[in-house]
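Supplementary notes for students who missed Thursday's class. We covered one full example, reproduced here. Read the sequence, then the structure, then the short commentary at the end.
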Amino acid sequence: MAGLVLRDRDAIISKEGLIFRVFGYSHPSNGYICDAEYAPASIFKSSNPKALRNHKQELFYKFYEDEGWKLIQKEFSQYRFFHEMLQTRVTYVGTGNIAKTRKPERKLRSLIEAEPTDNLVSALQDVLRFVAQRSTLAPSSFGVFGSVLHGFHNSRFSDIDFITYGRQNVAKLTETLRELYADSSSHLQNEFHDEEPIKSGPWRFQNYTTKEYQSHQRRKMIYGLFTDQRTGRTIKTEFEPVKDWSEIKNEYDSETRIIQKGWVKMTASVSDDKDAPFIPSVYVIEPLHVLNGTHRGIEVVRIVSYMEEFRLQAVTDEKVYVEGNLEEVVTPKKSYHQITLTYCPRYYEQVLKTAHPVGS
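Structure (token representation):
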């Protein structure tokens, strides 16, 4: 496993059967920073009715919120790693603890080359065929993640979770989906064409309204609904952007430090959005106004978001409003400031949104 190369959304299965998702593109040389996604029932059980997954004769449970992190902290210290840049511990799988991996592009290739085993796989093949025909994107431009990747999807309830690899392919796909959503014969529509996706629970974001959320999500195009003609079921269908190998730069540097500077509110103009589709989403900015006085005079060069809510949130030349954690990045050669949106105690105060209503 010493030469193993993995990227965002690739899956790692540990020796104990824990399933991890590789997180992002920057990792230490001897392993991968991850999220814990699933655990076999022999290790973890959940009372959440949405968590259960069946795989042949074995049961798995999906982790929700911080369940995976808590389990790792309590029982699996080998999957904790001291992140030198952040000076804190993160979930991590060293190459020596990897039993096997699952690649989304390989799994999708096996699904489209074989006869479908159930209605969900049939629907997946249909969606991919519609998109490929309209866009001329090759099937090799896509992968599949989530429960389908691991073979424990439920054909009646699971979603279709695609990956699209590479900036150019994501841009081409976005335009294709825009056309398909406008074509009633395609059986695909924008998931956020109405407010239904937002009605499932209490709204927690403090600086981001449900109307703003719907407007931003609707224009991203990567969230769709597919009406399956065989079953009549409407299936949530996502197209997750992931970098192509040639676009990946590993920014992990044990000599670099990221220093917390407090909370900041500011407006800015986006000058480069090429990494906005990915996690982390990076927006190069030109600051306009810092709105809390203690940080005035500090030059912030970028916004970095690890939150899916703020992926593809703004495009070049748009003015944005942002609240989040101000950080100073100190490297051996230089230092600069960024605003980071991530898992933290003030999670629901964070925001990145256009400073004017979307579409105005």
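Commentary. The longest helix spans residues 119-135. The first strand starts at residue 11 and ends at 14. If anything here is unclear, bring it to office hours.
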